[in-house]
Write a structure and sequence with these properties.
The complex is a heterodimer. Chain A is mainly α. Chain A is built from seven helices and no strands. Chain B is built from eight helices and no strands. Classes of the chains: A mainly alpha, B mainly alpha. At the A-B interface, helix 3 and helix 7 of A face helix 3, helix 4 and helix 8 of B.
Amino acid sequence: MELFTRLQESGFAAWVASSPSLLAYPTILTLHTVGMAIVVGTCAVMDLRLLGVGADVPLTALRGVPRLVWTGFLINAATGLALFTTDAEHKAVQTVFYIKLALIFGALLIYGRIRRLVFRRPGALAAPISSEVKALAVLSLILWTGATVAGRLMAYLL
Amino acid sequence: MDAFIEFIRSTQLSEILRNQVGWLWPLCESLHFIGLCLLIGAAGFFDLRLLGFMKGVPLRAAKRFIPWAMAGFAVNLLTGLIFFISQPQQYATNPSMWFKVLFLLIAGINAMLFETSYSDRLLALPSEAEMPVSAKVIGAVSLVSWFAVLYFGRMLPYLVPNPRSGV
C-alpha cells in the first residue's frame, strides 16, 4: 500500500490530477478512450469477420490487425498507468478495476489464440473457419464488452 | 437557451430519467462506449479501405461492416438523447457539445455524399485498383470526424468554465 501512496503523492500524479492544463487529465483520459476504440473496434471487426460478417472479405485483409491492436494497447497501457497514479490508493483496492484487468488479460489471451489458429497456421487462411475459432470469436466479443463496461463502471462503483 | 433547457428539464420524461432510475446513467454510459467501439471499428475498417489500405478487398465486401457501424451509431444516438434529456444543462451550453455535433454533421454529410455521388462508381472498381483521390478524401474525412466526435464527447466535462473531474 505504501507504494501506491508514494505513487499518488508523486509530482507526476499531482500534475496529471490537478494541472489546469487540458493536456493533463482530460487529454490522457481521452487518449485512453481513443486507444480503447482502436483495440476493441479492431478486435470486434476481426471477430465479426470470423463469425461470418463480410464473408467475401478475404481473411488476408486482417493482416494489419496486430499493428492496430498493439498500437491501441500501448496507448492504453501508458495512459492507463498515468491515470492509475492519480488515484492509486483507491484503484489498488477497487474490485471492478481488477475485474477489468482480468477481462483484458483474458481477451488478449483469446486474441493470441485466434492469431495462432487462423493467421499463423499454414493453409488456415484458405480453409473454412472452424467452430473452435468461432467460439473464440464470441468469447472475445464478450470479454472486450465486459472490459469496456468494467472500465466505465470504475467511475461509478466504490 | 435557458428557456429551452428549462423546458426540457421540466418534461416528465426528463424527470423520470433524472430521478427515478439511479442505474440508468452508468448503464447508458456503458452502452455508449460499446456503441462507439463498434462504430469506430466498423466505419474505420471501411474508411481504411477507401484510403487505399487492404488492397485486394473489394469495397463492396468491406461495406458489409457498415450496418454494424450504423447499429453502434443507433445505440449512441439513443443513449446520447437520454443523457441530453435528463441533464440538458450539462450539454446545451457546452462548447464541446457543439463541436461534437458539428463533427457528427460533417461525418453524416460525408457519408451521404459517398452514397449519393460516389458509391456506384467506387463499388464497381476492381479490388486491385488504385483508389481515386475522391475515395481517399471521403475516407480521411470520415475517419477524422469520427475521432473528433469521440474527442469532443470525452472532453465534455472538461471544456466547460468550471470543469468537473472524474466523470
